[in-house]
Amino acid sequence: MGSEVKLSVLFTRDEIAATVNKLAAEIRQDYLSKNPILIAVLKGSFMFLSDLIRQLDFPLEVEFAQLSSYERGTESSGKIRVVQDVQSNIKGRHVLVIEDIIDTGFTAAFFLDHLRRKNPASLKLCALTDKPSRTQVKVNIDYLGLTIPDKFIVGYGLDWDERFRHLPDIYVVEDKG
Ligand code: 5GP
Ligand code: MG
């Protein structure tokens, strides 16, 4: 593992921006007068969340949660843990979970179950990307941006070992050095 990682562009910043705008329009329609709580799953969703909410011109609140999904490397183990839970009370509130990517589905399924036990008025999922070829647990994605192939992606908040989160486009890691 060195610095010689080969990346190739999968989605440009313009394609991402168009996707975020499309999702924002859908979310606006459904949540305009609901004062929802948007819960971004750290760390990967921070950039998506910040672009998305700037397109939402109605009252809403923002929360963060951090989950551990990968025990080691890039393989999901199915064993998920809440590292940092939501701080505010979501009981009776309209909750929208903001995810960067749905891979096996373990993380999102676990987190939705976790939140459901807190009795929100409604609970939906928005994901920037989905890898349908990797599904192990079926989760319903209410607002989906981009479908991606079975590749490891980085950029636009997504990392590989904490690298590449700051890149404005989304890349496929072609060669892990
Ligand atoms: P799942 O539990 O669905 O297998 O994994 C979900 C989490 O794993 C995502 O929220 C993301 O943090 C991480 N992940 C899955 N696939 C990728 C990928 O291609 N690139 C990066 N950077 N993270 C991924
Ligand atoms: Mg994530």
Task: For the structure shown, list the relevant keywords.
177 residues, alpha/beta, six-stranded mixed sheet, 31% strand, binds guanosine-5'-monophosphate, binds magnesium ion
How is this structure best described in words?
The model has no long low-confidence stretch (mean pLDDT 94). This protein has a 6-stranded mixed beta sheet with strand order 4-3-2-5-6-7, sandwiched between helices. The chain is of the alpha/beta class and 177 residues long. The protein has one domain (13-149): Rossmann fold (3-Layer(aba) Sandwich). The chain is 21% helix and 31% strand. It binds guanosine-5'-monophosphate and magnesium ion. Guanosine-5'-monophosphate is lined by residues 44, 69, 76, 99-108, 152-154, 158-160.
Count every beta strand, where a strand is a DSSP E run of 2 or more residues.
Answer: 9
Structural class: alpha/beta
Q: Roughly what fraction of the amino acids lie in strands? A: 25-35%
CATH topology: Rossmann fold
Q: What is the count of helical runs?
A: 3
**What low-confidence regions span 5 or more consecutive residues with pLDDT below 50?**
none
Total number of distinct structural domains: 1
| N-to-C span | 5 Å
CATH class: Alpha Beta
Q: Secondary-structure element order, as H and E?
A: EHEHEEEHEEEE
CATH-derived architecture: 3-Layer(aba) Sandwich
Q: Rg to the nearest angstrom? A: 16 Å
- What's the arrangement of strands in the largest beta sheet? 4-3-2-5-6-7
Mean pLDDT: 94
How does the major sheet shape up? 6 strands, mixed
Helix content: 10-25%
What bound compounds does this protein have?
guanosine-5'-monophosphate, magnesium ion
Shape: globular
